[in-house]
Amino acid sequence: MGQRDGRLTAVVHGQELGPRRTGAIGAVAVEALARTGGPAGCRLGLIGTGPQGWAQLWALSASATHRPAEVAVFGRRRERAERFAARVREELGLAARAVDSARAAVQDREVVIVATNSPTPVLEADWVAPGTHLSTLGPKTTTHYEIPPELAERAAVIATDSPAQAGSYGTDHLLGPTPLTALGAVLAGTAPGRAGRDDITLFSSVGLAGTEVAVAATLTRA
Hints:
This protein is of the alpha/beta class. The chain has eight helices and eight strands, in the order αβαβαβαββαβαβαβα. Helix content is 35%, strand content 16%. It has an eight-stranded parallel sheet with strand order 3-2-1-4-5-8-6-7. The longest helix is centred in the first third of the chain and has 20 residues, at 14-33. The radius of gyration is 17 Å and the shape is globular.
């Protein structure tokens, strides 16, 4: 609503804007925490072929420092992963291919994105090489989690878009709230991000409620 006259300014479709907002925050996290940067881009592995995984690649395709040089995609259904990779090539201009296993998507990658609804881990902690950045978007409770707890134990930094929001989920949150660092603090330089080249960094996406409104307000002013 307009601040002065109360008139309707815009109608926001959350099903579309929500993943785009999450993708944009995820891209910022990769730029802040991932090791590889520069014109060469990064080798990226993606587990999950839904809207959230797509939005992460959509945002990263515009990154000046971490645009993926190649993308390995794994999904439960090979045919869907093939279609997803083809869409990435055609619409985002990224070199993408479907792979036969989650391990093939994770090993030897500078950046790994996990965007599933799985209640059990879709990868093993020892597949993740030193120096890797991993973003997790799916379930992260102590009873339903898409990444193994051992991976959090290996991470030098665990960042999130909102420690307060992660904390509000209660004590059953797999990654918080105690060890979580605010992504905003990393960006502001008041909290450490990547300290060493071989550090594993982890970004726990919780969604940052309310940002759709801020993004929509910016778009309506553009």
